[in-house]
Amino acid sequence: MSTLIENAVCTFCGCLCDDITVEVDNNRIVKTKRACANGRGLFMEYDATPRKPLIYGKEVSWEEAIAECASILENADNPLIYGLSSTSTEAQKKAVELADRLGAVIDTTSSVCHGPTALAMQTVGEATCTLGEVSHRADLLVFWGCNPAVSHMRHFSRYSLMPKGKLVPNGRKDRSMYVVDVRPTASSKVADHFIQIKPGSDYEVLTVLRVLAQGKKVDADQVGGVAIEQLQQLVDRMKGCRYGAAFMGMGLTMTRGRDINVRELFSLVSELNKFTRFSVIPMRGHSNVAGADQVMTWQTGYPFAVSFARGYPQYGPGEFTAVDLLARGEVDAALIIASDPAAHFPRGAAEYLEQIPTIVIDPEKNMTAKAARVFLPTACCGIDAPGTYYRMDNISIYARPVVASGRPRDEDVLTGIMEAMKLC
Amino acid sequence: MLIGIINGKVYDPKNNVDGEIKEIWIRDGKVVSAGDVDQSRAEMIDAAGLIIMPGGVDIHSHIAGGKVNAGRKLRPDDSRGHERKRMQLPQSRRVTRSGTGFSVPSTFKTAYSYVEMGYTTVMEGASPPLMARHTHEEFEDIPILDKGGYILMGNNHLIMDYIRRDEREKARDYVAWLLNATKGYGIKIVNPGGVENFKYKKNVTELDDKVIGFDVTPRQIIETLSWINDELGLPHVPHIHGLNLGLNGNFLTTAETLKGMEGRQAHFTHLQFMSYGGRMGKPVRSGAAEIAGIVNENPNITVDVGQIIFCDTTTMTADGPVQYRLHKLTGNKWFNDDVEAETGGGVTPCIYKKSNPFNAIQWLIGLELFLLIDDPWQVFLTTDHPNAGPFTCYPQIIKLLTDRDFRGEVFSGISKIAQKGALLPELDREYSLYEIAVITRAGTAQRLGLDNKGHLGAGADGDVTIYADLDDREKMFSHPAYVFKDGVLVAKDGRVVCERPGNTLYVSPDFNPDIEKEIRGHIESNYTISFDHYPVRRDELSQGKQIPCEVS
Questions:
Q1: A45 within some domain
Q2: Could you read off the pLDDT of B189-245 as tens digits, one per residue?
């Protein structure tokens, strides 16, 4: 006998679609409606059966596993807590608390995706809006260095390109869409205009756009492989639109220039507000990476890369960011929550992680978990645990579970570790 | 648990106690009368030579939520040099949390700093309904203090739709639903219609200007929401930030708005920013005398000041066009967030300098309002934290109000241009401790409809602050000797000694459930989240406390 659950929240990506229907049979999700391929995978592949924790790959009781975690952290001089982007803010809050009480370093996956976006925001600010403003107002969309057709599959249909909105009653027909990227992508195929720039030239192209937006001339025929006339056309569209929305991704943040690329785009967007209204929304990847920024910021004052070693939060992108700490061998234990650095970090950093005692808290036995000393298989928020998530535009949604769980939540495990260490 | 505080000089304006030596008894978190207790079982505090007041109640401060956190993120520079270490609590394994920030402190630091200044209740000034959950999440990380949030409604699409269609009963039911859904404390109006118009790069400047796409006026929005506030019997009155904030000559619009209330109850927030004389494009002058005169004639009006502090602070409001203008004016970095179907807002850093004539006049206007509004029950102490300066500077303002000589000293250091013709040197008034107790707790609690706060009569919450009686009032109010929250000693000698959760205060007015169908339709067609996920559920508040509405 299967049951239908309406308006489930998909906790895969930063779109945080909250209109998913799931069909549950025998505590397994057997069907989803409205979910994209990524979301469907998350819902369908997850098996909520309780699993035992592992120490060195051997099954142990939860008490033993928690005691081992406490011992690892107690014996560490400079532990690192990392991840957080795919868990609830309830768990994120506990993780920051643990870091504070331990005097640890804490960093989130922001440092390898939109960390540079935060640095840019801290330099020049950010004119942004919620996704509903885009769906109801925006007549011009510019996607820069991102490919939502693959990474955020329902972005176009739910928020940006297709929706029929108050001021764009005909949906797609009332909007004009630009993609700027270094190569054609699935997203550029649906755009009205594709501007292909040379790899590594984002900063130059954006600077020229800023110059042109101010009505000045550029003494060149082309920049980044793009004719100035083409950029002039884009600027004219930007200045002439009613409400413009730019979206940016790792094509800007993780290529040459990083935060200064983003700074140029954010400056351009701010400056366009002299002529019309324009906003920018970073395409946050993981479901609650925006929440991780929020929790870190309200508890410590900084969005990522924080050390509590001195008894108070210190901010150090490049110094307290996980990749840098691991590559330099500066930490002596790691607690990884809801992320898989072994699969994504540069080799040196990933290898160092194998050399130090590592704890992984995650619903899935991911690559990092396979090599970890302790693995604690927890519930998955939005499937068999409740939790609060922040969408890429910082709207928060409370995700209710859709199946019953016998697994502990991430925050329960973190609280257990703090209790075992007599930290709370 | 029984606590007796004896031999102290008590200032409890609500109960007409003006510096009398009086005993205060607190049992199980509540103030009780001396006759009701077995004094032999009490833990006694000898407050000889000390001053006793109810815990401070802040009626308007930005401490939690989307734009506050955007401010924190925007300004790592605000944290440098303003770090707070985690700290072992006495007689306990417990450790307080660390934090950072001067004008935009992190959540735990915010709580500790307020408590260490003798405040026990703080109201967050502006939360978009759609971001209420975020505000509550931060409230959960602001321990000890009781707190509540005002919900932004002055640019709400459905309310404006109902006004245009002349369906004010439906608007009333929707507002009641919205307060339930957001677990908010009251109705907040910010630049009604102007924030919506800013989404078209426009604004409103007159009460009868039109809101684009809705064919309603700021005047209608204010009028309807204040009628709704009455109808629902909310404990607080409509909390209003009017038009033209920060503009020369805005005192004319402010005067018109104040008078336009026609006797209806309302609170006007950060009035300093709304009391600028002169004319657009001409040098600013103080409009405090005119505005204070109107407040004096209208006992239905209360205000808080938003006193300027000369410092480097962070401005943030739901008034998006104001933040944009300030960004263009200062060249400082600018954050903006347009929120679908509801509101907007922005953040930008700002430095107030003594030597800057405009800033100095802003400073004068605030003090003049304090000194020219006759009845302290109508004017409350705020800095519109952090807009005019951080709340940690309240003691400095108390010194300015209680000490004419100190005021004169600071005055002599401000811009000479601002000094010329200023009214301030002629104002001899000095606030008494009794009056300070009114503008920092008794008056604010009364205006918030918090019957158990802001006083020390039987039945009051055991929120009590005890100060050393120092001549230097700034020092005195910076570091109280004892602070009790719900009868528990939470700070001693100006340091937190106990951490416990505080309450989240919210209202739950009744409404006709038929309205839900229309609201569902509205959310489904105007928002990007589903109706089911919009409301903040009661169990998302770990320590919610409902304050009753009184429908007449």
A1: no
A2: 999 999 999 999 999 999 999 999 999 999 999 999 999 999 999 999 999 999 999
Q: What residue in B sits closest to A130 (Cα-Cα)?
A: B339
Question: Of B269, B517, B292, which Cα lies nearest the Cα of B384?
Answer: B269
Instruction: Kindly state whether residues A272 and A349 are assigned to the same domain.
Output: no
Cβ of A136 and B341 within 8 Å?
yes
Domain boundary among A243, A263, A282: A282
The CA distance from B288 to B428, in Å, is 16
pLDDT of B93 above 90: no
Say what the ipTM of the complex is: 0.98
Q: Which residue is closest to B128 within chain A, CA to CA?
A: A395
Please report whether residue A193 resides in a domain: yes
| Claim to verify: residue A373 and residue A324 sit in the same structural domain | yes
Q: What predicted TM-score, i.e. pTM, was given to this entire model?
A: 0.98
For every residue of B352-406, DSSP letters joined together read: --TTSHHHHHHHHHHHHHHHH-S-GGGEE---TTTTSS-GGGHHHHHHHHH-HHH
Pair (A266, A300) in one structural domain: no
Residues A340 and A389 in one domain: yes
- Identify the CATH homologous superfamily for domain B53-504: Metal-dependent hydrolases (3.20.20.140)
pLDDT tens digits, one per residue of B346-366:
999 999 999 999 999 999 999
Measure the CA–CA gap between A378 and A58, rounded to whole angstroms.
17
Averaged pLDDT for residues B62-67: 98
**N- to C-terminal Cα distance for chain B?**
38
CA of A56 vs chain B CAs: smallest distance (Å):
33
CA distance to partner chain A, nearest, from residue B390 (Å): 16
What is the Cα Rg of chain A in Å? 22
Task: Say yes or no: A7 and A126 in one domain.
Answer: no
Cα distances (Å, whole numbers) of residue B328 to A122, A267, B86, B285, B421: 17, 13, 39, 22, 30
Is the domain of A319 the same as that of A348? yes
Cα separations (Å) of B239 from B19, B159, B190, B233, B447? 32, 16, 9, 14, 10
Residue ranges making up the domain that contains A227: 115-282
Residue A401 is given by DSSP the state: P
- Residues of chain A below pLDDT 50: none
Identity of the residue in B93, B100, B528 whose CB atom sits nearest the CB atom of A158: B528
Give domain status of residue A46, yes or no: no
How far apart are alpha carbons A101 and B98 in whole angstroms?
Answer: 9
Helix and strand numbers, DSSP H then E, in chain B: 18, 26
The residues that bridge with A376 in the sheet, in sequence order, are A361
Has residue A168 been placed in a domain?
A: yes
Residue B122: exposure state from Cβ atoms within 10 A (0-12, 13-18, ≥19): buried
